[in-house]
């Protein structure tokens, strides 16, 4: 039962809530619903074109609560109440849910999930590009259990391919696109145990340069894993943690350059200025490594040295679009996850808003007629917001009442566990005594942990473009790349496209079915 105090607080809060004048008129809501209905009815005309291009946007840790909070933040950044705002992904006509568990984990990690939504096979926690027959950290269980990704399928079909991330380019999500590793943490040989090295396993950075040598675009962080041990970083000369890590003495940047044909134009860049100076029309291969480790949070980004995710996506598409056969592009907003792990909701949500801007950027550069775009997450987090906040309440603000137990205020945003658990004088910290609007404020949590954990609930899948309607219900996460491959006529299901004259032309699937049935007299 709700206490009288709570009812009073809610009533007071709602009475001062900002209600836009137009929303007081029932006609506003009826007209909105009727327009939405018309839009829904138009979806009966399915887009069954062949997807010349496929783009997968992966918000690492972007659960449904994060999507909703990011929507409100986006609106508030534009001086609106926020709740009524539409994210770019909200505009996608088809939505599904993805079951995120790993083969050995109820609550998953980013490696096993990446293997699912990139390789089409569920896998164990902590492993990338291998089946569930591979045990984490056991190198000798890798051989024979490798699985390939949709990036490889696209490359084998003659398409251009790219990887853009705000994490290290050899982090869990991007690595499943090209690597086969029993451990996601084997960034370079420096992080590998001697036993794994002696058994012949290769680190993930090495595999990035060797497994698929003609990836056209690679952008993100992770510079230090490409250079010999203790080599000084080009940007952070005095920072020992930024120095090279490789024990084998290899310079993987030089190796990357050596693999490129002499008649092609290959460019390695390490800062935003160099990146924006390039003419994508003349770039065949691009490797951009903008930080020794992960890239900076968007709120902390140095806009001289580090490009935004939107800028990287724009340049990637301009390079990849030159291929008449089309392209596959993986884009990861990877630091949404890191912000949540650190309990820094403001960092996480600004990362999500920036990824949504990148989604919009990609939309302006591509066509619904020939480009399938999918937006999803690998997993959720134990992140929530509540407390009966009024309309337009700052997403980072306080709930409108104090606790009826400890008589202290609390923020709307809270975590189930994490580093924000604080006890002062034997009691929960009084948040009114701290700057809870600070970029690095750690929201309070119920259970103390150094790092907040993932959540286990389903995550959303948003889709638009050719065959997007195939993402329509509750699916296993490994279903996603199978849909994308089917739409693009690559991978395991090319038969329905056998007579398609060109990329972007209507799928001949229904016609082939008709021709197959005619001799049987089934249609008459």
UniProtKB/TrEMBL annotation:
Membrane topology is: Lipid-anchor; GPI-anchor
Spell out the subcellular localization from the entry. Answer: Cell membrane; Extracellular vesicle membrane; Mitochondrion intermembrane space; Mitochondrion membrane
GO CC, one annotated term: mitochondrial membrane
According to its UniProt record, which cofactors does this protein need? Mg(2+); Zn(2+); Ca(2+)
Signal peptide segment? 1-15
GO molecular function per UniProt: alkaline phosphatase activity; metal ion binding; phosphoamidase activity
| EC annotation from Swiss-Prot or TrEMBL | 3.1.3.1
Q: What class of enzyme is it?
A: hydrolase
Reaction(s) this enzyme catalyzes, per UniProt: ADP + H2O = AMP + phosphate + H(+); diphosphate + H2O = 2 phosphate + H(+); pyridoxal 5'-phosphate + H2O = pyridoxal + phosphate; AMP + H2O = adenosine + phosphate
Which is a Pfam family this sequence falls into?
Alk_phosphatase
Please list the residues that make up the active site. Answer: 110 (phosphoserine intermediate)
Q: Which GO terms describe its biological process?
A: biomineral tissue development
Main localisation = membrane
List of residues binding Mg(2+): 60, 171, 173, 332
Which residues does the annotation say bind Zn(2+)? Answer: 60, 337, 341, 378-379, 454
Cofactor: binding comment: Binds 1 Mg(2+) ion.
Q: Which UniProt keywords apply?
A: Biomineralization, Calcium, Cell membrane, Disulfide bond, Glycoprotein, GPI-anchor, Hydrolase, Lipoprotein, Magnesium, Membrane, Metal-binding, Phosphoprotein, Signal, Zinc
Self-association and partners? Homodimer.
Q: Which family does it belong to?
A: Belongs to the alkaline phosphatase family.
Q: What is this protein called?
A: Alkaline phosphatase
What's the source species for this entry?
A: Molossus molossus (Pallas' mastiff bat)
Q: What is the lineage of its organism?
A: Eukaryota, Metazoa, Chordata, Craniata, Vertebrata
């Amino acid at each position: 039962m709700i206490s009288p105090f709570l009812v009073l607080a809610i009533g007071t809060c709602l009475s001062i809530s900002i209600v836009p004048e137009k929303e007081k008129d029932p006609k506003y809501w009826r007209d909105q619903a009727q327009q939405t209905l018309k839009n829904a009815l138009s979806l009966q005309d399915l887009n069954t074109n062949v997807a010349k291009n496929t783009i997968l946007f992966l918000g690492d840790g972007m659960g449904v609560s994060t999507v909703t909070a990011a929507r409100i933040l986006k609106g508030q950044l534009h001086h609106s109440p926020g709740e009524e705002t539409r994210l770019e992904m909200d505009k996608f006509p088809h939505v599904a849910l993805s079951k995120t568990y790993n083969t050995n984990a109820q609550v998953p990690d980013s490696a096993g999930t990446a293997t699912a939504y990139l390789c089409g096979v569920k896998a164990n926690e902590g492993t990338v590009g291998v089946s569930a027959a591979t045990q984490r950290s056991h190198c000798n269980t890798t051989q024979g259990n490798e699985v390939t990704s949709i990036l490889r399928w696209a490359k084998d079909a003659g398409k251009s391919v790219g990887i853009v991330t705000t994490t290290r380019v050899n982090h869990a999500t991007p690595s499943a696109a090209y690597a086969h590793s029993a451990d996601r943490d084997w960034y370079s040989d420096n992080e590998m145990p001697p036993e794994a090295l002696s058994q012949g396993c290769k680190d993930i950075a090495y595999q990035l340069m060797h497994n698929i040598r003609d990836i056209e675009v690679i952008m993100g962080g992770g510079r230090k894993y490409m250079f010999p041990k203790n080599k000084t970083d080009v940007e952070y000369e005095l920072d020992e943690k930024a120095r090279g890590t490789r024990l084998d003495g290899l310079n993987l940047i030089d190796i990357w350059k050596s693999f490129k044909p002499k008649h092609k134009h290959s460019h390695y860049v390490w800062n935003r200025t160099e990146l924006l100076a390039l003419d994508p029309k003349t770039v065949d291969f691009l490797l951009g490594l903008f930080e020794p480790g992960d890239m900076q949070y968007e709120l902390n980004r140095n806009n001289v040295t580090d490009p935004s995710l939107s800028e990287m996506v724009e340049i990637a598409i301009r390079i990849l679009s030159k291929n008449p056969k089309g392209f596959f592009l993986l884009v990861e907003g990877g630091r949404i996850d890191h912000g949540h792990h650190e309990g820094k909701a403001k960092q996480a949500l600004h990362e999500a808003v920036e990824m949504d801007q990148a989604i919009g950027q990609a939309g302006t550069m591509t066509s619904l007629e020939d480009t399938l775009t999918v937006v999803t997450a690998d997993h959720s987090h134990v992140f929530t917001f509540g407390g009966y906040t009024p309309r337009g309440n700052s997403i980072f603000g306080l709930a409108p009442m104090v606790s009826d137990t400890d008589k202290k205020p609390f923020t709307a945003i809270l975590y189930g566990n994490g580093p924000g658990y604080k006890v002062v004088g034997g009691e929960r910290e009084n948040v009114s005594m701290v700057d809870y609007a600070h970029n690095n404020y750690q929201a309070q949590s119920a259970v103390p942990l150094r790092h907040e954990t993932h959540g286990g609930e389903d995550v959303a899948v948003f889709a638009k473009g050719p065959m997007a309607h195939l993402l329509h219900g509750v699916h296993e996460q490994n279903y996603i790349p199978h849909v994308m491959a089917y739409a693009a006529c690559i991978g395991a299901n090319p038969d329905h496209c056998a007579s398609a004259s060109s990329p972007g032309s209507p799928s001949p699937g229904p016609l082939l079915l008709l021709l197959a049935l005619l001799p049987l007299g089934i249609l008459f």
